């Protein structure tokens, strides 16, 4: 039986949010998150982020990249390390809201929203189709860019 999955297009989300921030005039990005296959969603977001930078002829500064996983504390520690590093940056791409603590900051941070309700509905529908012997396929749901006061709203 083939593997079928329902998920967000993390590559597209990473690319779109990076392009939005570039349009705000930012050119020197830092990345907080995992840029490896150990965290596939983060890695896809990272690849989208890199693609947007490349599309705009901007540098991917590996010295301003910090490997961070899923917690507010880890995000905070990485941000402190970034500041202490002395690397030049005018934008931070955090691979998740937990790393960025997006809803608990001032100003509120721009983010990429995943439609978890639609994902759940598609998951149940796909499971029922599979049980009934129908052919199913993997689905990628387009993310939604949520622009908040941190950049552009």
Q: What is the second-level CATH architecture?
A: 3-Layer(aba) Sandwich
Q: Helix/strand-derived class?
A: alpha/beta
Roughly how much helix do the residues carry, as a percent range?
A: 40-55%
Main sheet specs: 3 strands, parallel
Compressed to H and E, one letter per element, the order equals: EHEHEHEHEHEE
Mean pLDDT: 90
How many structural domains?
Answer: 1
CATH superfamily: Response regulator
Number of strand elements: 7
Q: What does the radius of gyration come to?
A: 17 Å
How would you describe the overall organization of this protein?
The chain has a single domain, classed as Response regulator (Rossmann fold). Helix content is 42%, strand content 14%. The protein is built from 5 helices and 7 strands. A 3-stranded parallel sheet has the order 3-2-4. The protein has a two-stranded parallel ribbon with strand order 1-6. Strands 5-7 form a two-stranded antiparallel ribbon. Helix 1 (10-23) packs parallel to helix 2. The protein is elongated, with a radius of gyration of 17 Å.
Quick overview of this protein structure:
The protein has 153 residues and is of the alpha/beta class. The chain is 42% helix and 14% strand. The longest helix is centred in the first third of the chain and has 16 residues, at 40-55.
